[in-house]
Amino acid sequence: MSQAAQSFASAQAATDLARVACALERHWLAHGAYPDALNALSPAFLRELPRDVISGRPLVYRHGEGERFVLYSVGWNETDDSGLIARTPKGNLDRAKGD
Fold first, then answer.
1. What pTM was estimated for this model as a whole?
2. Contact by Cβ (8 Å): 93, 86
């Protein structure tokens, strides 16, 4: 994939994740808890749920105890690495590994 296409896909994924995270917070404020699944956000908090730009599958979401949740795209390796953020030896994001 070209560098421009990768940059666009990364920006779109970040935007979609931010939109869903905001909808999750709105759900929390309205109900005092995060939903069990993302589909509970539509249509009240999001008109429709975005799909993972990179894999085409749904975004990955888990909620924990209280005020915690995990939300991510599977990333360029198209493997669910449980939300792991991989870094290069220099500390930059490693797009070939992690989510």
1. 0.84
2. yes
Closest among 44, 96, 51 to 75, alpha carbons compared: 96
What's the pLDDT at 1? 59
Nearest to 17 by CA among 41, 45, 47, 50: 50
DSSP 34-54: --SSGGGGTTTT-SSPPBPTT
Residues 6+ apart with CB under 8 A from 2: none
Give residue-wise pLDDT tens across range 68-94: 899 999 878 788 877 778 888 898 877
